[in-house]
Amino acid sequence: MEANTQNLAHQAPFPSDRWWVAGFGWELKDQPLARTLLDVPLVLFRTPDGQVAALEDRCCHKELPLSLGAIEPRGLRCGYHGLLFDCQGTCVEIPGQEAIPAKARVRSYELRERDQVLWLWHGSTPDSRPDSEPPAYPFHTDPAFRFGGDMVHYDAPYQLVHDNLLDLSHLGYVHVHTIGGNPGLHMNAQMKVTQDGEVVKVVRHMPGSEAPPTYAQAWPFRGRIDRWQEIEFHLSHLRIWTGAVDEGDAPLDDPQRGGFHMRGFHGVTPETHASCHYFWTISTNPKSNVEEVTRIVVDQTARTFLEDKEIVESQWRNQQRFGFRPQMDIHVDAGPNRARRVIRQLVG
Amino acid sequence: MEANTQNLAHQAPFPSDRWWVAGFGWELKDQPLARTLLDVPLVLFRTPDGQVAALEDRCCHKELPLSLGAIEPRGLRCGYHGLLFDCQGTCVEIPGQEAIPAKARVRSYELRERDQVLWLWHGSTPDSRPDSEPPAYPFHTDPAFRFGGDMVHYDAPYQLVHDNLLDLSHLGYVHVHTIGGNPGLHMNAQMKVTQDGEVVKVVRHMPGSEAPPTYAQAWPFRGRIDRWQEIEFHLSHLRIWTGAVDEGDAPLDDPQRGGFHMRGFHGVTPETHASCHYFWTISTNPKSNVEEVTRIVVDQTARTFLEDKEIVESQWRNQQRFGFRPQMDIHVDAGPNRARRVIRQLVG
Amino acid sequence: MEANTQNLAHQAPFPSDRWWVAGFGWELKDQPLARTLLDVPLVLFRTPDGQVAALEDRCCHKELPLSLGAIEPRGLRCGYHGLLFDCQGTCVEIPGQEAIPAKARVRSYELRERDQVLWLWHGSTPDSRPDSEPPAYPFHTDPAFRFGGDMVHYDAPYQLVHDNLLDLSHLGYVHVHTIGGNPGLHMNAQMKVTQDGEVVKVVRHMPGSEAPPTYAQAWPFRGRIDRWQEIEFHLSHLRIWTGAVDEGDAPLDDPQRGGFHMRGFHGVTPETHASCHYFWTISTNPKSNVEEVTRIVVDQTARTFLEDKEIVESQWRNQQRFGFRPQMDIHVDAGPNRARRVIRQLVG
Fold this sequence. Notes:
Chain A is α+β, with helices and mostly antiparallel strands and 348 residues long. Chain A is 20% helix and 33% strand. In chain A, the strands form 4 sheets. Chain A has a 7-stranded antiparallel beta sheet with strand order 12-18-17-16-15-14-13.
């Protein structure tokens, strides 16, 4: 049992020198995108030749957000007096002025695109450079899977979203209309929490479960089902593998198990200490009616996440309203608490 | 002449160890109700067997407002992980966990229902228990009267609503379209202010008055009327008896006088130091067309109170904007000032 | 190159003992008008006999804004209890009370109307009285010109609006759909900045320019045009004379030059340290289709100023968001910086 340490008066920094999710590749089209990540207001954009870039969202002249400007082949042009910045933040043109001062530049950040995910390097110092490639996410390119996704903005600290994702026992109360199921089964499911370095795993098996609405619509189950939920917490994102087979059809921990799969990618990136962006995709393996089943799974997942948003934002407002009083832990908090410990040790 | 003592920087507590109005019985149906009273965020609810209860609106586990939960026969179940609390705030079930820790509880408050009014005991300490029954209000059950009412939320401190109700001279300026009348008559009416313990009475007689619109629509007056306004300030609520007889028909202070009666119940309860709830009913004695006259009286009263809300909230915004400068009293402030003194002495 | 000195934590007062624009004469009809000017919440009104007046917007009794009251021949009557104040702020009637205390008064301010502009005297002390007539503005009465105008509220400090008006090089980026034109020409235009006491002048000539949309719609130009922009900064308002002749038709600095004229009056008055009112008119000299051309010029000017509002408010939000970091000047900032220096010396 631990006290809630989220009191904003004692803010820890965000874990640094690592990749965080900045968005999805499809978000960068012909207009620049304003997005604050890890307390830094950024403009993200893609040049006509396909390169992605991230700059501080502030012209060094009169401070207009560069996200109000226009993309050009050489970079981004400010919408007030036309200063042009390249992808490294260097001013390469001041209209009407020959000399460009050395300080005519804005800060740039490493932005990479991999498997349709945009990754931002968050350095502990301005000189910090990536020491690795950003993580791969193969299900965005696996032909056996279809996926869809979206972004949800949370007026709540990012760790409350971690808590929510690492403890799926709430499905029986919050998500009864989509991916829920019988509450008792959820709360009584065997739960195994393990840790490997910074990675926390929570595995829950729910044999003999009723098929919740989304499952029943997406897969031709015969009757009762054996469900699994495997949550893998990485600091920058969670991978949540859920699914089910017909009751008794396969061992639940068989890596080759068939059945219905929903594989979720969940990038949770702080916007500020009291708000965050939640970038999610859900991949599934439709047996037939591929388009329709994919649509059902994606739409109902989207609906489910709006239910979570309502709960978590209400929770956060209430924590503030009651002055961050201590909370009381129960059995389902083992996973979330492990993840919080990982972060606490990193930002010490 | 006294300076305005409402500066929020010097907040007095609210008078305690007494009953305050928490709402009306008909507000508690099959959903829990979130309401902050006297700076305490509460959830009010009625169990299927009719019992009313008030708990702190915060689950002791993850702090979700309990008002987002569901009513069950045994109490209120949290909408996040399903903890169930009884009407005394004791957790009686933690789904999936056998042992229920002793600290699994939320604070409960005494809530009573009498004559369709909900009363909350506001104790000076957690151990404070009611020393009396809450007040009766017979006109909600008197067969000679019909009534209707509603709740108005004020973004203004509760004492500004007291001021407004204890000085009805504003009727001639603020409420000309309903219960107003000729301004000169209002401002020049004889006014008698008396006090008996914590109860302040303001009585005004306005013989030979024009019948204001609401009066003319509700009662078959022949012409000019003799009006009375009797205001009884109790700390938790005001009782305002107004009405009129045809000019010269009866002595205005005759307890047996006939004519048209509007009997108002006005529960004014702080939400915070800068906002309050105003719970009102108006009871009347229609001579004929019972339903229609009742509707006219209730609807026009509702309209009148929205006019008051606009005035009082503007007044409050202006007091803040001008930094709580001293005010200048005039003759009509005798009643309001007496009531302020009662409260000042209680919270001294 | 100078650091941004707008940090709200170090606010300078506003230049005082001078006239500021309070609005336009046509705004004062039969209802009082609430307007905060130079941090003072005021009510402006016109009595039935045509006199204009400005009072503190707070009744000295219960602090209701007087702007919620009603205009009468003798002055303004409060909407709560009917106190009547004359144009000097003296209470001349307390309904129902014979004696009017000496302190029954509200502060009054000098308000004058000249050429349809309302001018407010902002004194350094309560005793400060005007030492001059407010400025004339002849184009509001010149029969050769037609004009229209409006008020724009800015959620940004007034000096950011000065910056915007004193540097018209932004026309090529911000106003391409109305009064803009080719950006290169704007940024490379010769610019002459001069100063005479508190008055700063910026003159730019752009020979051989393309006629921007508004010009082409308002005047029968044959082809390319010679444009001028003459900006005269007075602390209380700017006068911006812009226009054009057919290329080569007249010397651009000839006071008798013909062609198309747009003469702008731009009163910029602080509301608070972080917001301001922008009162503008545009006068033009239509060659034919007088009504239609006037409408085009006024409507497109209005549209242009909404584009400026969006830019300047975004700029201000960004300056706050980035904590008022130093800015980098470029060539076009000479005029704005001169005006800032004038104000800095006055409020030093």
